Amino acid sequence: MESQPVALVTGASSGIGQATAELLAASGFTVFGTSRSAEKAARSYRWLPLDVRSDTSVGAAVQSLLEQAGRIDVLVNNAGYVQVGAIEESGATDVQAQFDTNLLGAVRMIQAVLPVMREQGRGRIINISSVVGQVAPPYAGVYAASKFALEGVSEALREEVRPFGVTVSLVAPSFVKTPIASQQPAHAIAAYAPGRQGAMRALRASLVGGMEPGAVAAVILRAATAPRPPLRYLVGRDAKSLIFLKRLLPEPRFERVRRRVFQGGKRANLQSQTQP
Which residues participate in catalysis according to the annotation? Predict the structure, then answer.
């Protein structure tokens, strides 16, 4: 039986997931990182193959963890990808695939670990959302919808499991310098090509200029160790400013702010948007 707290981090082969797994391991956790592909590189944490889209794979991974560690104290739901495209050109298959990974993948993981956490009388569930979980950019509406849904699930779940000593938190970063996986619509419509391509340029520029994954990992560590973690952690000045402006400004004025932020490959000066 392990004496250290045990954490499971999905999508740990790169970016935020890898930085989180490494930081938790360095902070005294026994960490299990996961990915769909076999991991051969040396890590400071243990490795489990896992496809969050498969009930069987999720069950096998959690069972393997429990056989090795005897318990689970922290689940970090990080696995996901970005579906790019206009709503009209995003077919049902595109939408289903996006939700199957970003939302249902997290739900499968939660349902797999909660019986153990309830029996233990303690546990932390940390769901990785995004600023687009509250502000939907054009040409990433399906991705944003999956994050909006994850936020709703997390809010409800937090109250449902509170009597059992389990906490639920959302970590919502703005742009992060990470090789996030993106997928084009299966049936693209030519009329949307200029807008979609502009959105992709804006996304790439924002990621290049974004924060390091370690900055997000540090907040996840706080959520994993704080005595009373709050529901939501916003990470990055852009995320905090954008959500603040959404709450503060009349909707027509905020729409203009959103256009400046997410269109044309240019980053808005959010700090100036509250000025008359």
Answer: 13, 129, 143, 147
- Give the chain's domain count: 1
Domain with 115, as residue range(s), is 6-236
3-class DSSP string for 173-211: ECCECCCCCEECCCCCCHHHHHHHHHHHHHHHHHHHCCE
Is 48 contained in some domain? Answer: yes
Nearest of 176, 168, 181, 175 to residue 229 by alpha carbon: 168
Q: Do residues 223 and 169 touch, judged by C-beta distance below 8 A?
A: yes
- Taken in order 148, 35, 164, 104, the sign of the CA dihedral is positive
What confidence tens digit (pLDDT) does each residue in 99-150 have?
A: 999 999 999 999 999 999 999 999 999 999 999 999 999 999 999 999 999 9
Q: Which pair of structure tokens corresponds to residue 216?
A: 């997000």
**No. of H helices and E strands in the chain?**
9, 9
Q: How many other C-beta atoms can be found within 10 angstroms of the C-beta atom of residue 234? A: 21
Largest CA distance in the chain: 61
